Amino acid sequence: MLYALVMAVIFGMILSFYLSAVIDNQKNLITQKSFLSAQLMARMTQARVVKQKSGQIRFNTGISEYQQMGNVLKVTVRLENARTYHFELPNMVK
Fold this sequence. Notes:
The longest helix is centred in the first third of the chain and has 47 residues, at 2-48. This protein has one domain (2-90). It is 50% helix and 31% strand. A hairpin with a 2-residue loop joins strand 2 and strand 3. The N and C termini lie far apart (79 Å). By secondary structure, it is of the alpha+beta class. Keywords: Membrane, Transmembrane, Transmembrane helix.
């Protein structure tokens, strides 16, 4: 009886560890997806920038705001999930 109880506790601990590892991995993947979406939006903003000093571009997954400062294009991306990312990219507009 004691053996069965010990084995059940050990199995529960292993299962708990595995479950927390899977949850952490899923959170990491969601964070990476958000960052890559924001980075793609920033690069698309960089490609679409016209001669205006600042502006805003709306995408399906969020809003990208840009501001030209000399040779640097500062882009702020706000995603629908309320995450905000800031990027500084080389200014392509001459």
